[in-house]
Design brief:
The complex is a heterodimer of chains A (309) and B (259). Chain A is built from twelve helices and two strands. Chain A has helices at residues 4-21, 28-53, 61-79, 88-114, 119-139, 158-176, 182-189, 191-196, 201-227, 237-250, 255-271, 279-293, and strands at 149-150, 229-230. In chain A, strands 1-2 form a two-stranded antiparallel sheet. Chain A is globular and about 55 Å long. By secondary structure, chain B is an alpha/beta fold. The longest helix of chain B is centred in the middle third of the chain and has 20 residues, at 120-139. Classes of the chains: A mainly alpha (309), B alpha/beta (259). Chain A binds chain B through residues 2-3, 5-6, 171, 174-175, 178-183, 185-186, 188-190, 192-201, 207, 253, 303-309, and chain B through 51, 53, 72-74, 77-78, 82-83, 85, 89-95, 97-98, 101-106, 108, 110-112, 114-116, 118, 122-123, 125-126, 129-130, 146-147, 149, 152, 165-166, 168-169.
């Protein structure tokens, strides 16, 4: 880790921008899928901070994604006609941050009263929260109600998606790999022992929830400006499950594994497009098989060495 | 002499059950006090009251002259009360080093911002943490095992690691909850020496809950005896041993055998 992490982040950001610059030469379909992969990496890695590292069980990630998506989309739709084209990246960046921040605030509002719940109870509460968010957007005229929002500017390119993914991975990795960050894993391992070691479990849980929600919001904003269209049905319970599956498949608390799982589970349905009706059956089968044979996750090998440096 | 820990008429009821009833207890700075009693006497409950896991139904607890009411366990750790558990509670997925590292950070000020900026201050702070952890591990001869997963350690090392983790919070009062449980006689002797060593080396007070009489009698300066949540005796090991109520309630045949 150490300061090398910052160098990796800069390299990744640079690569994202450079590749983005040449993206006109790529096949549009594959480029689109690549952007989907980037967005899903953000969703999975941020959920991994909550579910994997900190050991909570949130089923509400799609809800936070929806908040960020709708806020960012509305922001662009309102501002882009009024401002010159060169201001586009500024509007987009500001919109993403705004969406992420509102999602983070939502995370705080949901997290503070609910995070004293454990396991299954928390899962049910977050599930309910996700549905509330969806119904809220489905019934609010300002956000297009059931028809959703259309005509969102198509601003998400390779650079934005993968640049954001790089930042998300950097933040989660650096956070966890520090003396401060051991607190997240301590809470996961044994909450009572954590508090007996001076770690405030509620604070860590809320922090993980807020940071996770922030990046889910960013992912939502990227998604909105990628598809140019938002519909409440895209953020239903199944979307949350998709993200949870990525985290479980990759190995709870294993960032690299979760990234690989996010890539695989984005590409797999694309290859299986003609059998897409069976996609969820395949998902279910995958989870069952993995839970039986590799409960520690598909891409984890040996002991989880959470090494110091 | 000002007391480090002072319990006044502490009572806790769970529904109809009075687990701890009007207990007075004090521990002075750098004092080694034993707390004994038969199973279910309320020893661990008393620990949980002192460490903030439970709040007393009535009575007051003062630490360092200040009341501890309404403080959460992690806040009391910050004040200087550290503990171990009867059933070892380590961070099983972490390494030996990280177990101690988690506890060292209690008195540190750097947090999220420094972890993300990763500047010089962060690196200095982390180097400082590493040095503190390694010093502690070296004192207890666990430094060779720094990268071993805590769950893979032998039982005795797990006990020691839990004590090290508690010491890493720089406590002034260390509560040990049956540290000798599940140990053989040789290990028990080692543990007795270890507890004494800790008290001298770190100049802290120790409150020791123990089931095994020899461990407590050998090292404690003062012993309090609980039975059915009531303190029935307190005094030097010799006094406690001679107390008729204690013999009746707890020592029973073992004491007569030794006599």
């Amino acid at each position: 880790m150490k300061s090398g992490a910052k160098r990796y982040l800069l390299l990744a950001l640079l690569a994202a921008v450079v590749i983005s610059f040449f993206s006109a030469y790529f096949n549009r379909y594959y480029l689109g899928v690549t952007i989907d992969v980037g967005i899903n990496i953000i969703l999975a890695v941020s959920l991994n901070l909550i579910n994997g590292h900190t050991g909570q069980f949130s089923l509400g990630h799609a809800g936070f994604m929806a908040v960020g998506g709708y806020i960012a989309a509305k922001f662009s739709l309102m501002l882009s006609p009024a401002l010159p084209p060169w201001a586009q990246p500024l509007i987009f960046g500001a919109g993403l941050l705004l969406g992420g921040s509102v999602a983070a605030l939502t995370g705080l509002a949901v997290g503070v009263p609910t995070l004293r719940l454990y396991g299954d109870y928390l899962a049910i509460v977050t599930l309910g929260f996700g549905e509330i968010i969806r119904v809220f957007f489905q019934t609010t005229e300002t956000f297009g109600a059931a028809t959703g929002l259309t005509g969102i500017p198509n601003w998400t390119n390779f650079g934005w998606a993968w640049g954001s993914a790089a930042i998300c991975v950097f933040v989660v990795t650096c956070l966890v790999n520090s003396t401060y960050g051991r607190g997240f894993i301590a809470v996961n391992d044994d909450e009572i022992a954590a508090s007996a070691s001076g770690v405030n479990p509620v604070r860590y849980k809320v922090t993980a929830f807020v940071i996770g929600a922030f990046f889910a919001g960013i992912a939502g904003g990227l998604y909105a400006h990628h598809k140019s269209f938002l519909s409440p049905t895209g953020f239903d319970f199944m979307k949350s499950i998709d993200i949870v599956v990525m985290v479980i498949l990759g190995g709870m608390g294993r960032t690299v594994g979760v990234i690989i799982a996010a890539i695989l589970l984005t590409l797999l349905p694309e290859y299986l497009r003609e059998f897409s009706d069976y996609r969820m059956i395949l998902y279910a089968l995958l989870i069952i098989i993995i839970m039986i044979t590799r409960p520690q996750g598909l891409f984890t090998f040996g002991f989880k060495v959470r090494n110091s440096k | 002499m000002p007391q480090l820990l002072q319990l006044n008429q502490v009572t806790i009821r769970f529904g109809g059950l009075t687990a701890v009833s009007e207990v007075d207890l004090h521990v002075g700075p750098r004092e080694l006090v034993g707390l004994i009693g038969p199973n279910g006497a309320g020893k661990t409950t008393l620990f949980n009251l002192i460490t903030g896991v439970y709040q007393p139904t009535s009575g007051a607890i003062h630490f360092d002259g200040r009341p501890t009411a309404k403080l959460k366990p992690h806040q009391l750790v910050r004040r200087g009360i550290a503990r171990t558990f009867q059933n070892i509670r380590l961070f099983a997925s972490m390494t030996v080093f990280d177990n101690v590292r988690t506890a060292v950070q209690v008195h540190r000020t750097h947090g999220i911002r420094d972890a993300l900026i990763r500047g010089g201050q962060f690196r200095r702070a982390e180097a400082d943490v590493e040095q503190q952890v390694m010093e502690l591990l070296a004192i207890f001869h666990l430094d060779q095992l720094r990268n071993e997963p805590a769950r893979g350690l032998p039982y005795g090392d797990q006990r020691r690691l839990e004590i090290i983790r508690a010491l890493a919070t720089q406590p002034r009062l260390l509560l040990l909850d049956e540290p000798a449980a599940g140990m053989n006689p040789t290990e028990k002797t080692e543990l007795t020496e270890l507890v004494h060593f800790i008290k001298e080396k770190f100049q802290i007070a120790v409150l020791l809950v123990e089931h095994d009489m020899r461990v407590v009698m050998g090292i404690c300066e003062r012993i309090a005896v609980l039975d059915y949540g009531v303190k029935i005796a307190e005094g030097t090991p010799a006094e406690v041993r001679a107390n008729a109520r204690v013999v009746e309630a707890y020592l029973g045949e073992e004491a007569t055998k030794h006599a």
